[in-house]
Amino acid sequence: MPSNSKIQKVSDLIDKLNTAPNFVLIDFLTATHKKLEELRKKLREDKSNQDLISFSAVKNSLFKIAMQRSKKIDLIKDPAFKGQTAMLTLPKDWSLGLKTVYAYIKNENILKFKFGQLDGNVYPEADLMKLAELPSKSELIAKLLMSLKTPQTRLVRTLNYNMTKLVYILRNKGN
User: Fold this and answer.
1) One-character DSSP codes across 99-115
2) What is one Pfam family matched by this protein (predicted)?
């Protein structure tokens, strides 16, 4: 018979899984409490998604039960459920939170991605590392807009070049 505290923890995990569309499991076996608090502080710096980003330790067996009950994905036999596990819940725009954790992993080398579910797809550790290195959605939109704007600007300057050159010649001759 499960205890009331475990039942409550499973229901809390189910609520987190249902409210946050994306999550990543992280191995923190070699991390100290102080280092984990530093990571939490860095994650809190993003004010726009502060309520949806959370980083907390989870018990592997309780997480499996929560996954089964929330009907997310079937990971009962996954080898990632070994050792110390923390769950990072992310909002719909997950790139900033994932980049923050990735930068921390690169600097400190004490955490490791296990796997994650982003936009309904399950990604192993290697794919999460690749996704974290990519530019965010807003950066990609800005680059796309700049690339669209640049040819138009060149065209306008090319069409105005002869007229501008004529004005300079006439101005110089007039003086």
Assistant:
1) HHHHHHHHHH---EEEE
2) Ribosomal_L10
Encoded tokens for 12: 């809390």
The encoded tokens of residue 73 equal 């994905």
Number of structural domains, the chain? 2
Pair 93, 143 in one domain: no
Q: Is-contact 17 67, C-beta < 8 A? A: yes
Shared domain for 44 and 102, answered yes or no, is yes
Query: Alpha-carbon distance 57 to 89, whole Å?
Result: 11
What range defines the domain where residue 17 resides? 4-134
Candidates 56, 57, 52, 37; CA nearest to 108 is 37
Distances in whole angstroms, Cα of residue 118 to Cα of each of 30, 101, 162: 25, 15, 53
Q: How far is CA 70 from its chain centroid? A: 22
pLDDT digits (tens, 9 = 90+) for 131-169: 888 888 788 888 888 877 777 777 887 888 888 888 889
